[in-house]
Amino acid sequence: LIKNGLMPCSPYKPKRAVSVHVLDLYSCIFQRSCDAVTAITRAYNSFYVERGFPSENQEKQRTLDPYRRGFQNAHQWFWYLKTVIEKSVADALQRGADLIPSIHQQTSSASDAEMDFDPACAAERTGSEEPTTGNPEPQVFGPERPPTDKECSRSLQQRCPSCFGSESHGTPFSAGGDIQVCIDGNFTQRHYRSVGNCPSFYSPQVILPKSFVDEVGNRIDAARNKKPREYNGRVPSIAVDSCEKSHESGTGSTVKTSMSHYDDGGLMGMVCRHDIPLFLTNIDTPGEQQKYGVALITHLFSHLPKNATVTVLYDVGCVLDRSRQLYALFPEGVDSRLAFSISAMHAYAHHWACQLVYNPRMTNGMGLFDGESLERLWKLLMGLIGITRVSAADRRLWMLDRQTVFISSESRDKLGAFMRRRIHASLTSKERESKTVLQRCGATIEELREQWEQQKDAQLSISKHAPTRVRKQVDSIMNLQSDLDGIDKSIAKIEDNMKEGGSSKQQKTLLTTLRQSKITMNENLEAYYLALNIQDLGPEFQGVDVVFVQKLFLAHDLKQNVRKRAIANFLEHSRLDQASGKKDRPLGTKVHQKIRRSISKRAPPLVAAINRFNKLCNELAELHQPEWNIPLPDPLPTSLHELKGCELLLQDVCLSRSEELLPRWLTDQNIRDGIRAMQLLDRCQEERIRLGREADNMLRWYRRELSSIEIALALPENALLWVPLYAYREHTLHLKARWVNQFASTIRYDNAISIAKELGDKAGIVTEAASRTAPAEGTFEAQHQLLLSQVQSFVLNRQAQQPKTLTEPKVVSDSSEAQDDDWEDEEDPSSDCESDYDDGDDSDEEGGIARNDEESHQVEQAVATIQPEHETDGNGDRLTLDSSALTDLQLPATPNRVPHRNHIERRSFIVDYGSGPKRHDFDYRELAILGDPSSKLNDECINSGAAYLQHLCSSTHDTSSRCSLFSSFAYTMAQCCRPDDVLWREVSHLEFWKRKIWIIPIHHHNRAHWSLAYVNLVTGDLYMFDSLASRSSYPYDVKDVMLLIIRLGRLATKYGHNLSLSANRWTARPVAITPVQQDSTSCGVWVLVVIFSVFKGCHMSVLQPNDLVRFRSLLYQHVLLLPPRPRT
């Protein structure tokens, strides 16, 4: 079924099968839109029902969804087979990459006669596999091939060559490190516990196994049970505590998923700076525990060289950074090569002191990486949410893994667009904007850097953060103040009502109660003020008015409250605007208005808090004395639009006094603007440097990958993978136009293509020489045992039926009626003609075809001897053997045209025979047969293939112009005694009467076997080639060929052409007396090989059976280079 393009819905007694073209189309649709199987199967059901083909059960009732389960199974295993092919292609490319240094070494040294192509040796020379000594520790989970000392693992290079294609590592963190990634969790990709699981059938490529994640979790628990190390972080621990409490992912105890309904709560992923997903891990706990992030980072380092440095952006990177400094969370040697930062969008929800160290816009070396790439990945995976929640657990992971691999491949192809977009859309505009602000600032870059360092030193000081006791007391004061403000508003409102409409008894009672409550609350507020012992803060505020210090602490905490509310409000509006603007999933009008009203209700408290803060700022300004040297806070704008872009919102109120004059970064707005512009300009320059390095990495990977493809195509053991390899080669060649940028020009990519072509040519030459020196036996069958098991059994059975040895060759006269004993058991081949040519009663008693008596008598008189030996030709010279078949058929280093990617379109070429041009076609069926090494060639493959070989030799060998190539139909027509006019129409365009050598392919229809006859009209020699060296059909084939020769001579004379045949009696001889065919399908390929040799003036080729795969592959490559011909 599969060989005929159908995928069974069941491995045992399938009732239905689905076309692989339909499955391939659905796979492409699924990758783009994530449409469930139910959609297409129900569409098929409706389609068939409307046309009168409903599906019924055993009770003759229509089934509602008859195709879903079968289609789902067929699609699952079809996709699995595609992954097997992808794995085989990846292995072939890896072998090609391993052979690159070996080819360089062997082609550069002319004295190196022994050609060893052991991939293990090549890998050892490249350093990809280190020699093991002793008993190394087994690795629980890691890459299939460990990274080298210079390069990352091949799997990471394939996912993002821009990040992982470098050969030098060790970049300091001040320059951003070697690699920048981000991690984040998502709790929408859940899985219902009630659905259950299915048998495991797939090994994910990007999803880490649960056993590895649990092992990391156990290691973290063991480390936390030990005594913590001393914390030496730059950010005060009190600030990190604030960040941990303000984020849901800060602590793993926060419940984000109800595990009573779900067994898988979500996913955590790792993405590089180019939005390419690297790894995923399944979350099976209620919260986002640290073990998931640690597992992703640990697995990443297992793919990197030992000196590579990594910067990880995480929503709570400050919390994880403190944890790894307190406890040994990572394996040995990782901490020194790991740095943390926080994603840009989440940075503004962090404490200001945390932002000074971890904000990527304020950290040296981070460039313009924002760390929000995972948000884009979750959006791309959004379509799988509904499908995966109700799928089996392992099937859910399979779909997520395959979709992530597809996204990774698509993103890799878009690396060129990413670089151009980053250069033109981001760098140019931001650099221009930054330089404008710096010019307006009036300060030099050195002065701005000095002010920035002073600001960080001042705001990272531990003394600038209030003690916990004071913060709690200030919170209580703020709550009382809020309640007191509410009472004042209520009293004012009641008094206004009493003035307008008179006073009632109820209003008077309520007013008295409110005034009494106000007095009580004022007393409590005063008590809190007295309890707030500012002197406990040390000599920092000695000599400062207590009321001023109290209001300063109130302003400090109130500003943090305002910032928290403002950021939440900004995020809500941003998300809502995206939905309304159709940048995200659209919301209905009513829902949009409802959400906006809900957000608007939360705006007045924010504005009230801003007004309260501004009021405190005015009161602090009235109480302030210059000799205190305490910076005053600036008021905030009350407009939310202005507040969103206000830098003052992110700065805390200073809780210390300055020993000297107030710094310029605190008092001069132009300096603050200049510092931001300087930081942005630094990030742009860092981004430009990193983009240049990444462009070099992409070019290096491109050259190496294309070289691996060319070498893999040159290796004969990859014959079955030639079609996907060639398609991948074409895809890689087209990446040049997409990846060219200002850092890597077209010239550099063209040079990489030339280098790859040269390596491919060298690999073909060296491999051919190596195969002639020591041909590998059984390579084809050894690598494809499953596909060729039937062929192998057929070969074994045929070998058992063949005679053990051949006796000494005999000369058999044409008048001999007795036959050799070895021929008695074989079938009479005289009935080889097809039924289409049978004329009913024309068969003789032996099952042959009745022939013209005169022509039969001429045949008897013409053939003098039938010689079984082939050591000499008719003149006594030894037969010439062709030793350059593979070399002459080798593709040029730079073909004039790229093979057409659509293998279904027919290929065509035109041959001018003198009488006029004739078109030869390779239809899609012939292309499929020619590209499948296990398929037997048909008539069109033989006839068109032989014509193309003659066309190929016409410019290099003059002998081909003296040959007349007949089609296989000419022999069949002569054998079946077709009328003269029919035969003449078949052969007249060849002008065979002008040629001295005739080549006649012979198809034995009853045995489905190919043989060959070629004739020298001058010497009267008839050469017969049979790859099985069959002795029983030999005499009959000779007579049938002679019949065709005599008929052709008579027809030429009849139609006015002079044809002189040999006046001597003809001698027929076999070219092969021992079988050269070792399977049941290669007879047609052997015929093409011998025809190719005859065109070059030889009698036979020296090719061995294991060379046929390479010959067939090369011929297939030539055919695909032909221009496609549209169907008419």
TrEMBL record:
**Annotated Gene Ontology MF terms?**
cysteine-type peptidase activity; ubiquitin-like protein peptidase activity
Hydrolase among keywords? yes
For the biological process aspect of GO, one term held by this record is: proteolysis
Using the UniProt annotation, give all residue ranges assigned to the region (Disordered): 123-152, 802-860
One Pfam family cited in the UniProt record for this chain: KDZ
Q: Which UniProt keywords apply?
A: Hydrolase, Protease
Q: Does the keyword Protease apply?
A: yes
Domain of life of the organism encoding this protein: Eukaryota
Concerning InterPro entries, the annotation shows: KDZ (IPR040521), Papain-like_cys_pep_sf (IPR038765), Peptidase_C48_C (IPR003653)
Show the ranges annotated as biased composition (Acidic residues). 817-847
Task: Describe the location of the Ubiquitin-like protease family profile domain by residue ranges.
Answer: 920-1094
Family membership noted in the UniProt record: Belongs to the peptidase C48 family.
Cite the PANTHER family for this sequence.
CXC1-LIKE CYSTEINE CLUSTER ASSOCIATED WITH KDZ TRANSPOSASES DOMAIN-CONTAINING PROTEIN, CXC2 DOMAIN-CONTAINING PROTEIN
| Protein name per the record | Ubiquitin-like protease family profile domain-containing protein
